[in-house]
Amino acid sequence: MAVFLNTFLPDSDASSKLQVVDEGLVKLSAESESSPYKLIQKADIKAILKIRKPFAHKGTYGHALIIAGALKTMGAALLCAKGCLYGGAGLTTVSVPESGLNALNTVLPEAMYLGRSNLIKIKSLKKYNAFAIGPGLGKLFESVCIIEELVVLKVPVVVDADALNILSTREDLLMHLAKDSIFTPHLKEFDNLFGKHKTWWERLQTARIMAKKLGSVIVLKNQYTFIVDQQGDVMINPTGNPAMAQGGMGDVLTGLITAYIAQGYSAKAAAILGCYFHGKAGDELAESHYNITASQLAEQIPKTVKGFLK
Ligand SMILES: NC(=O)C1=CN([C@@H]2O[C@H](COP(=O)(O)OP(=O)(O)OC[C@H]3O[C@@H](n4cnc5c(N)ncnc54)[C@H](OP(=O)(O)O)[C@@H]3O)[C@@H](O)[C@H]2O)[C@@H](O)CC1
Ligand SMILES: Nc1ncnc2c1ncn2[C@@H]1O[C@H](COP(=O)(O)OP(=O)(O)O)[C@@H](O)[C@H]1O
């Protein structure tokens, strides 16, 4: 029986009730036209996920740089870094204000530190192959300057939280960010960035247009998160649950997606894997927990991925 898009939306409208959602990312029948809306299946994840290789070392799985945190929101940076470490990046470096250095060394001894002043030395950024910016960053002048540097560097970036809010007032930067970047807004951040929307259907149409225009992936977060690729196709993530509705959960997702970029996945694949395993870790924890903290979820990720492969 056909499934329609309205099943995955929290509100009601006439158009989404008519829009069929395909099961899986691969078109199965040559006869029917494929829908731009696709529900991610377990088989899709199996096809995308690469098994860790014998003789692999930390260099095999990339080096991620996370630019996040401010005095009162250092936790967001730590959670993002935690998502990246537990997502399997070979190396994770975190650029937080110096006031966060002790916390970083104490909470995440596996992570390295890069001072904010070093961020403007482009040469020092060449060793990283995955970049994330935004969780808890704040919207101070320094944060704007860092985004300007990333635009000059022309590297794809995972953009979240405060970095999204900065871009909402700087269309020049938004339009010049490297293609294959990944934007991870929740509803409010999305509307800040692209304008107010009355319905989720309208919001989704804007996401499709903007993902094409930017040549980037938009991860529009909700109970069912929509991953919109550079062609404007929409992949619907089936995992996740209300036990996950606690602060910091999106920060972990940003770190996890960045870990997959570091490991060599494309922007689209990294977004799909990140959303799927983030939600699946939450689903597994929710079997025995009424609610879940973001730290708890990050720590569950390697177990979830291992269990998935069995
Ligand atoms: N430990 C730390 O350091 C943490 C630091 N953090 C960092 O702090 C920074 C600012 O984060 P923030 O939570 O203050 O602002 P933001 O996320 O814009 O929410 C503002 C309001 O928007 C709404 N809203 C949000 N989501 C929605 C949704 N899905 N659907 C609908 N509405 C939604 C909701 O408004 P309401 O509906 O309650 O009126 C909410 O109150 C940011 O950089 C972040 O990374 C956090 O990650 C927490 C842990
Ligand atoms: N009810 C829910 N069902 C499924 N996923 C949820 C639910 N509530 C929150 N999440 C997930 O948690 C994350 C929340 O992200 P975000 O709002 O950016 O949080 P924060 O800014 O606190 O880190 C998203 O990935 C979202 O899909």
TrEMBL record:
List of residues binding AMP: K221, N222, Q223, Y224, T225, G250
InterPro entries: Carbohydrate_kinase_pred_CS, CARKD, Ribokinase-like
GO molecular function, one term: kinase activity
Catalytic activity: (6S)-NADPHX + ADP = AMP + phosphate + NADPH + H(+); (6S)-NADHX + ADP = AMP + phosphate + NADH + H(+)
YjeF C-terminal domain boundaries: 41-308
Binding site for (6S)-NADPHX: A76, G136, H186, D251
Residue ranges crossing the lipid bilayer per the database entry: none
EC number: 4.2.1.136
Key words of the record: ATP-binding, Kinase, Lyase, NAD, NADP, Nucleotide-binding, Transferase
UniProt GO BP: metabolite repair; nicotinamide nucleotide metabolic process
Similarity comment: family membership: Belongs to the NnrD/CARKD family.
Function summary: Catalyzes the dehydration of the S-form of NAD(P)HX at the expense of ADP, which is converted to AMP. Together with NAD(P)HX epimerase, which catalyzes the epimerization of the S- and R-forms, the enzyme allows the repair of both epimers of NAD(P)HX, a damaged form of NAD(P)H that is a result of enzymatic or heat-dependent hydration.
Subunit annotation: Homotetramer.
Protein name: ADP-dependent (S)-NAD(P)H-hydrate dehydratase
Species name: Pedobacter nyackensis
Biological classification of the source: Bacteria, Pseudomonadati, Bacteroidota, Sphingobacteriia, Sphingobacteriales
